[in-house]
Design goal:
Blueprint (H helix, E strand, L loop, with lengths): L9 H24 L3 E2 L5 E2 L3 H18 L7 H29 L7 H20 L13
Antiparallel strand pairs: 1-2
């Protein structure tokens, strides 16, 4: 186990935090909007299950890639999957936002803002992680 974490840089640990935050976001998102339907759109659910799956799928793929020779590509995988989850979230919630913005029903709730902020934080961390080293530089390269 020590050998697994021996030569890891700050990007590796930030990716672990990103995975944990992604799981928390997915759970809060599913609990908050899983049973919430929109009456104006023929009772379609306000949750995007595709976006929910993307929040978990990148973690599984990143773990698989970390144990292969393609581990250096995991930060890019994070960006793609988290951004896709964000886009599916926005796509599914846009009607709710448009009704609120038009003033038809001015009842934005805390959950909406909280989940939106979590998605934006996930996207920002994923982008920042792309520029951080995933492994420490070896002394042989110096």
């Amino acid at each position: 186990m020590k050998k697994l974490f021996q030569n890891k840089g700050i990007g590796f640990y930030l990716e672990a935090v990103l995975a944990l935050l992604s799981i928390v976001t997915a759970i809060i998102y599913a609990v908050s909007y899983g049973n919430f339907v929109n009456q104006a759109t023929n009772n379609k659910p306000c949750i995007s299950w595709v976006g929910f799956v993307f929040l978990f799928a990148w973690i599984v793929l990143a773990v698989v890639l970390k144990f292969t020779k393609f581990g250096k590509y995991t930060p890019y995988l994070d960006i793609v999957f988290i951004e896709l989850a964000l886009f599916f979230y926005v796509y599914r919630i846009y009607y709710y936002v448009s009704v609120m913005a038009a003033g038809i029903d001015a009842s934005f709730n805390f959950t909406f803002f909280f989940i939106t902020i979590l998605f934006v934080i996930l996207a920002a961390i994923a982008i920042a992680n792309c520029f951080l080293p995933q492994e420490k530089a070896s002394k042989e390269n110096d």
